[in-house]
């Protein structure tokens, strides 16, 4: 294992030799051959005895299976292909009785709403939690300015609310999708991390800070309920266990999409392509996602196209040359489509937005070229 | 107008010079007699032990120069922390040492009475006299202290500010053109910069 | 009365701000919004592993920070000699932090204290909990056991001239679960110089506990999200409401 190297002035940004991920991705690790740990993980996935994993899953859930019709598991659900495929398989193939729990997107998108509705019509119980928007908008604005990430509070909610639901409805089993660090590049503490969701790790990496610290002039403790985990004692007493579905069943976002498409009419991006990438089926439920991924591009030098391309390469759905060409074409495309909605949501003017974006440009990655900005180390 | 920061080998000269520059004045860090002479004002900084401070001032022949500029020519001078302590008559730090003797005071070890020593951190300076040093500095403003020895004035009049730490301790003094602070204005942010500015503009 | 201090600790890996977890540089922080005006004091530590970077990057980073910094700056990482200390002071440090260097040669503490004053020397101690209530002082980024107990070493460091003690729980570093206040109390009770506590700060209640239970004079956080103006104000208000005098 090599120590992650940080890009710096005069120092190269390295791209994974196999996929398109740069070493600027937080916590990603490259091996001696220059291959990232997400690619290595994908290799390992091919050698996994998925039948054995399935058996392990069935043994694991057996004691939790409902005997009296009650819900026996929770699926944190956005309505997208990934969480929907989990819900569908759990209910219709594996015989469990899931309760779907959604932490509402910042600005719900038609596509997402339609897909959620289709699923519910197909037969699922659903809890839709929408946080106090006065507070949520304030937090989104604050963290967009401070961290270039308007979804920090949302991340906290997406993590806290399903666990709150588990405690509230007394459903100890929770199925998340995949362990981001191993699937997409990052720090993998041990094999267990891929199976069991470490709640603390998620806070440390995604939210970064305890939401109770967000009390300020306008926000008080009572406004922060959606973001705070239930008391650890209560969680332990109920025996809440959170697992990654991807540990038990081979995970590929493209295959999840194909799977859902075969089950229900699954809506995709109306323009046929999501801004900033070449796909039309990923992360479609929140109008803020376009800008969110654009900020990733600004801060780390890679956007949606690199992300999608890497995942397709890793799971054998696309070759590197093709992915590279598409990423070069679309990565970092400015997300004009929903910008006005974002400006309104965060109470920012366009000049303010552009100023904040530029302030988050990592100077080690970007160089000013006349009126344009360009990457010092473009994709290769 | 240039301000000379006396370089006798002790003290974070960069911080002091940086603060002066930030306030829009020209800072000259030097131990050269002619450069010190040319400056309109002087700052005597310092972090370290009293004995060493005096020894270094002597070694660099600065005692003579400073005595002439400050006592004879009445050049405005601000002593900071050890620099302020050196202006006293004597100190008991690591033995008994003679100071510059510009103010009637002695330097003694802080008896915390149970409190931790050195006295480190932000503490309120209670202004006991109206003085240009404190213009636009609110009463009981916080400044950064870091010291194990403190200045004890012989009689009231010289002392113009105190901080509470196991009893009232001299935090600032002034005698004509000679000003001194036990705390570090260059490390005390807003109010520190205001105070420094007051010295530079007086 | 002197106020309780809230101190930010910046860990630099090859001159770049990094988060650490149990002392391993984890990932680089990208925030540009470290606020230098509302914080009480800053500690900057070079956590670059030998051979993994260029020391010049660290000096540059410190120098740049010092230019805009009008609060005290304590700097450390790899200080093994008086010359190292002098170098740090010359690029803008107000205090020098020593750790492994002092463990290897305790006279280093006295050397620096004699030359620059005790208030200039912060002895940093990294401790690992053995699990039986005792602690082991570790050197070399927490990798090497010394067999010493942190309170004994802290006491000795004070005698040798340390002006402050900086105690870090290796096990809690990077977690958001709170300080090891048993460790903090052990050390703060053993010395009469101010003690700064570090390792595990997650929420503002942890800060309160650090002062009240741990006996700290200053609580430290390495979490960059605690360094924004809003966060610092929020934390200090919480401390103030809890009855702990702070600089607001």
Explain how this protein is built:
The complex is a heterotrimer of chains A (380), B (202) and C (248). Chain A is mostly helical. Chain A is built from 17 helices and seven strands. A three-stranded parallel sheet of chain A has the order 1-2-3. Chain A has a two-stranded parallel sheet with strand order 4-5. In chain A, helix 3 links the parallel strand 1 (73-76) and strand 2 (98-103). The longest helix of chain A is centred in the middle third of the chain and has 18 residues, at 152-169. Chain B is of the alpha/beta class and 202 residues long. In chain B, the strands form two sheets. Chain B has a nine-stranded mixed sheet with strand order 2-1-3-4-13-12-11-8-9. A four-stranded mixed sheet of chain B has the order 6-5-7-10. In chain B, a hairpin with a 2-residue loop joins strand 12 and strand 13. The radius of gyration of chain B is 15 Å and the shape is globular. In chain C, strand 1 and strand 2 (16-21) form a beta hairpin. The interface between B and C is large, with 39 and 36 residues.
Please describe the topology of this protein.
The complex is a heterotrimer of chains A (380), B (202) and C (248).
Chain A: H1 37-47, H2 50-61, E1 73-76, H3 81-93, E2 98-103, H4 110-123, E3 125-129, H5 133-147, H6 152-169, E4 173-176, H7 180-184, H8 192-195, H9 199-207, H10 232-238, E5 241-244, H11 245-248, H12 253-263, H13 289-300, H14 304-314, H15 320-330, H16 339-346, H17 350-359, E6 366-369, E7 372-375
Parallel strand pairs in A: 1-2, 2-3, 4-5
Antiparallel strand pairs in A: 6-7
Helix pairs in contact in A: 3-12, 6-9, 14-15
Chain B: E1 2-6, H1 13-22, E2 26-30, H2 33-38, E3 41-44, H3 50-59, H4 62-72, E4 77-80, H5 82-86, E5 90-91, E6 97-98, E7 105-109, E8 119-127, E9 141-147, E10 149-153, E11 159-164, E12 168-175, E13 178-181, H6 189-201
Parallel strand pairs in B: 1-2, 1-3, 3-4, 4-13, 5-7
Antiparallel strand pairs in B: 5-6, 7-10, 8-9, 8-11, 11-12, 12-13
Chain C: E1 5-13, E2 16-21, E3 24-28, E4 41-46, H1 55-67, E5 73-76, H2 82-90, E6 95-98, H3 100-104, H4 107-116, E7 121-129, E8 135-139, E9 144-145, H5 150-160, E10 164-169, H6 181-190, E11 195-198, H7 204-212, E12 218-221, H8 229-241
Helix pairs in contact in C: 5-6, 7-8
